[in-house]
Amino acid sequence: MIFQHFNLLHARTVADNVAVPLEIAGVPRAAREARVRELLELVDLSEKAAAFPSQLSGGQKQRVGIARALAARPEVLLCDEATSALDPETTASVLALLADINQRLNLTIVLITHQLEVVKTICDHAALLEQGEIVESGKLADLLVTPWSRLRQSLLHDPQAEQEFLTRHGVQGRPLCGVA
């Protein structure tokens, strides 16, 4: 799981933070070290292995959290507000990394977010929850071509943004919303 506030152990190095789940699982030291090197390379933090969390930027801390979450080879990666504490540029970088991980590792990623831009940027499927209940779910592209979709109404505010989104997701046609 990737957390909003990183949840790194401040007295441990980057490499040691990534190794925590492997230590708990009883993975032998040599295998643990090899897996940590592999993951730090994946998240582009190999050169920060000996650094401590206090020496990292917010984006770097989140990358450590991503590496740690991947350490035990999960079948699903859960991201709980993983970008809400980040600036827009860093958010874009982390989302690009998650998209790469999704493709490269063929890993399902579940994002919990209140940031609608994150949904538009990275999601293939979406569910809208209200008071803990799913009120709408499906392929994002399908939801966005359904005029009465509440998710569509929340995500799309202008025709140009809508057309760019629909084009990116392979949906042909004119924008479904208009400006009066």
From TrEMBL:
<keyword id="KW-0378">Hydrolase</keyword>
<dbReference type="GO" id="GO:0006865">
    <property type="term" value="P:amino acid transport"/>
</dbReference>
<keyword id="KW-0067">ATP-binding</keyword>
<keyword id="KW-0472">Membrane</keyword>
<dbReference type="GO" id="GO:0005524">
    <property type="term" value="F:ATP binding"/>
</dbReference>
<dbReference type="InterPro" id="IPR017871">
    <property type="entry name" value="ABC_transporter-like_CS"/>
</dbReference>
<feature type="domain" description="ABC transporter">
    <location>
        <begin position="1"/>
        <end position="156"/>
    </location>
</feature>
<keyword id="KW-1003">Cell membrane</keyword>
<dbReference type="GO" id="GO:0005886">
    <property type="term" value="C:plasma membrane"/>
</dbReference>
<keyword id="KW-0813">Transport</keyword>
<keyword id="KW-0547">Nucleotide-binding</keyword>
<dbReference type="InterPro" id="IPR027417">
    <property type="entry name" value="P-loop_NTPase"/>
</dbReference>
<keyword id="KW-1278">Translocase</keyword>
<keyword id="KW-0029">Amino-acid transport</keyword>
<dbReference type="Pfam" id="PF00005">
    <property type="entry name" value="ABC_tran"/>
</dbReference>
<dbReference type="GO" id="GO:0016887">
    <property type="term" value="F:ATP hydrolysis activity"/>
</dbReference>
<protein>
    <submittedName>
        <fullName>Methionine ABC transporter ATP-binding protein</fullName>
        <ecNumber>3.6.3.-</ecNumber>
    </submittedName>
</protein>
<dbReference type="InterPro" id="IPR003439">
    <property type="entry name" value="ABC_transporter-like_ATP-bd"/>
</dbReference>
<dbReference type="InterPro" id="IPR050086">
    <property type="entry name" value="MetN_ABC_transporter-like"/>
</dbReference>
